[in-house]
What does this fold into?
Amino acid sequence: MKITNEVTIYDIAKKLNLATSTISRGLKDHHTISKKTAQRIKKTAAEMGYRPNNLAASLRGNKMKTIGVLLPTVTQPFLSSLISGIEVAAQKAGYTVLIMQSHDSYQEEVNLTQSLYDNRVSGVICSLAMETKNTDHFRRFIDNDTALVFVDRVPKNFDTFHVVIDNFDAGYKATKHLISQGCKRIAHITAGLEFSIYYERKEGYLAALKEHDLPIEDELIVKTDAITYEEAEKACKKLLQLKNPPDGIFAPGDILGVSAIQTAKKLGIKIPQQLAVIGFNNDPISNIIEPNLSTITHPAFKMGETSAEIILKNLKSKKKKTDIVKQITFLNTEVLVRESSKKI
It folds into this structure.
């Protein structure tokens, strides 16, 4: 087997009779090197089969050209779109993306933050695990001057960058839509109120009820342990078997809304005539279920792209990450009305 040696800048320098520093700067289009010389260097490098050693360069700078992404899972359509947005922005800037899944486990999230730290990533984008209540394990990135962005599921108190939607407004709009369709007893399925996204959606729901003088009853608010079909099924059965059941349900995720529709249909309840349902995210499943699920649009791709752009911008900043106060970027949402909530 023929073994070929890796071409280095020393080989290019020897061939062109130039200093290695000149070769290095020419490959990077440094302003101190003329365009003619830079083109000559690049042409020779390509002919010789030169490949830049990004690992060595990163180690010299003590950081990899990699953005670490830590998410609960990659199987949810919302998070898949989020990843796509991150990758598009990162790849344009010459960065790779390292994706890790916590599977909603706090301990796994702690372990993976250590792994990202050990891999010397340039920045970290994270959506928190459902079990996470303490976020001290993320302090290592701030203390090491590594850019950190929380997206979607964000901690209530952590001074860094947050990319979110206006969850209060989204919850308010979803509930107000159900009210506009004539619903009088609106239930809300919620989860993980330690996360601002679920807490704020619930607060928006409550604000809409108060504004329209509708009753706020504890029995109409059911907390689930996870955002899953099975958890929503249990919650819906509990709601629909009440002596005075709801005539509307606001679910903070489309899988929960789909579960609500199917659970109600099994109990002989007509959608939307007897029960109007609205979900959240505009996942593909919302347009497949019969009847189609009304939902709140969630700009997942844009959220990912924005998160990566914040990381890239801050890699160029000389400001210490320990000096950054909480900075929140809000993206817009809309109500997407479909058959599951059209009573009027």
Remarks:
- The longest helix spans residues 77-92.
